[in-house]
Amino acid sequence: MTEEKTSTISNSWLWLGAAISISEILTGTFIAPLGMAKGVLSILIGHIIGGVVMYFAGKIGADTGMNAMETLKISFGSKGGLFFSVLNVLQLVGWTAVMVVNGASAIKVLLGMEGSTATVVASLLIGGLIFIWMALDVHAIAKVNSFSVIALLVLCLLLTYKISQGAAAVAATGKISFGAAIELSVAMPLSWVPVIADYTRTAKKPRLANGMSNLAYFVGSCWMFIIGLGAAVFTGYQDVAQLMGAMGLGISAVLIVILSTVTTTYLDARSAAISFRTISDSFSEKTIGLAITVIGTVIGCFVPVMQFENFLYLIGSCFIPMIAILITDYFLLKKQTITASIDKVNLLMWFAGFLVYRLFLSLSTPVGTSLPVIALVMLLSYAINGKRYKKQSEQISEAYAPVD
Ligand SMILES: Nc1ncnc2[nH]cnc12
Q1: Opening angle at CA 135, ends 132 and 136, nearest 5
Q2: Complex ipTM above 0.85?
């Protein structure tokens, strides 16, 4: 795949396109039991926490020119970092399948199709289009992407208008705590943390592109969550595809679903390929990206993708401690180069953070799980690594000190 430099505008469109997806709208509907006011508040708090973390992850890529998985080697070592490449490839194959499943089921609802053959046909349609998107070069993608995001924006505005015209609030079924709603909102930007640096590092103006990409994603993702929440609260439709059908959006709704799924899933498959190549570079980025698209589509066709909320919490458990350690190292302790092969201390600290995240999740704190876990892991890693890195650099300078 060519490494052409991208403009700030095309990076911003790319991340707005990433935010506009049925999966984001669907996650917003889970928050409906909180009602509109509390729901919106939880969405904003969660996106601010996840957004700040995503911004710093992108900034490291913009500053160093490293891709997302290479940046992790700064904290976890040249071989230790590969563990996160494996986790990231798994999450992105998972996302590809989730996107295909959600896209296909929306198309089925909109076109009034039923049965497993219809699922396979709709999944293959979406998977096939992602495959073609992937096969095009970056230059063409930037143009098609900008066009499709503009079309999506218009259709989402229509959807927002229709929802705002909805009747009085409908009592939503199900239960969710405020903290859990924050956590679902953190998980969405967080899940892009191991991805964003792959795109900021190839920008003509990396720092500006990082700021604008994050802003575009923040606005787009909050909006999608609020569309989902509003649809469930004001119209009673838990399924946005049904709502779009009831609005008479017809074929334009099918277009929204297809375009939004393709533009977002392209990022998943491409980043999975970039991460995979940090493990083995025997195949080109494009070949691996195409293979990931096929694998994700096949999983989407035949494996029932359930437990979407648990998938999001799992992403939080893995990536919150990981990024807390990297941010502490890079920004606070100024460790900005790869020095170890496997940094066992940081890997152990990551594992402790993973366990603490799972514990806090079951405690259901009012501020969610990510914020206390980030604070704890950053404190711990500052205390431990501050001393450790100082000692290491003293040893290095002693070893290289001139002998009198
Ligand atoms: N397809 C996707 N949708 C939302 N967040 C993601 N993070 C990584 N891939 C994603």
Answers
A1: 95
A2: yes
Among 95, 101, 260, residue to substitute to test ligand 1 (most atoms within 8 Å of Cβ) = 95
> What pLDDT does 147 receive?
78
Q: What is the pTM of this model?
A: 0.88
Residue positions counted in the chain: 404
Please name the fold of domain 8-306: Hydantoin permease (1.10.4160)
Rg (CA), the chain: 21
Domain ranges of the chain: 8-306
Give the Å distance between the CA of 184 and the centre of ligand 1. Answer: 13
Q: Which residues contact 213 (CB under 8 A, 6 or more apart)?
A: 11, 12, 14, 15, 58, 196, 199, 200
User: 145 or 263: which carries more pLDDT confidence?
Assistant: 263
- CA-proximal residue: ligand 1, atom 10 (nearest): 95
φ, ψ dihedrals at 340, nearest 5°:
-110, 165
Ligand 1 pocket, CB under 6 A? 21, 23, 95, 99, 188, 191-192, 195, 264-265, 268
**DSSP one-letter code for 170:** P
The atom number, within ligand 1, closest to the CA of 91 reads: 8
Q: Please report the atom of ligand 1 found closest to the CA of residue 191.
A: 7
| pLDDT one-digit tens code per residue, 69-85 | 999 999 999 999 999 99
